[in-house]
Amino acid sequence: MVEENLRSDNSRSGLLDLDRESCQEPCKSNYKTFLNREKKCPTCKGTGKIYQEEENKLVALIPVSDNRLKPKRIWLWMLLTLSICIVIVILLVFWLSPRKIIISAVKSDVYPYNFTLITDKNSTTLGIILEFEEVFRIKNENYFSVSLKNLSLQLNRNSHITLPKISYTKDFVLPSRANVDFSVFVKYIMYSLNDPYAGLCITGVLNNLFCLISSSFTFSTLWDSSMLQDTSRIQYIYCSNKTLSRY
């Protein structure tokens, strides 16, 4: 009866009794701080009671060993998430790693589709213009597309090096893992004054020219905006009017 009367008196005065076993004794005893100083419980001031309006402001501390802090299968989910991240990274590295762009000339014999004589006012033949198509096979081994930014062509014939006029598709885009044939139209001019083989081709004495054709391709890739690829091949360029190809 006495204990019930005390509880009713405390509730009327706005005070709440803390649990006798878990709080009343510790609240009345001192505790040591990090500086080894003894202090009373800051919550109840050592009285073992708190005001009713303050009960919603208190925060309960849960020990680390509490099972509620250890959800089931947490390590399984962490391992699964880590595995997925590793697989994604490996796939990205595999797909986005730079690979080779292989270029090779398709034809060994080049036939002109247009043969034009260069003459002066007196109808004297000064040289010839050979127009032919050079075909390159381009293989993109990357898993992303690349674009062609520039192309240069050089003809080396018995130490006689020339840079002919060329025309090709600008900003050509090569799809990923693609293998395509790329055409370059070449306009090769030979003058009899500085090239003795020009007169032989004009008269038909010589039908073909032994020539080293070198090309330089500049590509724009995902990682490099000026990737350079060179290729060279010895080819025979047919130079007489008798060897015109059907185009």
UniProtKB/TrEMBL annotation:
Q: Which domain of life is it from?
A: Eukaryota
InterPro entries, per the entry: TMEM106, TMEM106_N
| Keywords annotated in UniProt | Membrane, Transmembrane, Transmembrane helix
Q: Name one Pfam family in it.
A: TMEM106_N
Please report the stretch or stretches of sequence annotated as the Transmembrane protein 106 N-terminal domain. Answer: 40-74
The UniProt transmembrane annotation reads: 74-97, 197-219
Q: What is this protein called?
A: Transmembrane protein-like
**What is the organism field in this record?**
Brachionus plicatilis
Q: What is the lineage of its organism?
A: Eukaryota, Metazoa, Spiralia, Gnathifera, Rotifera
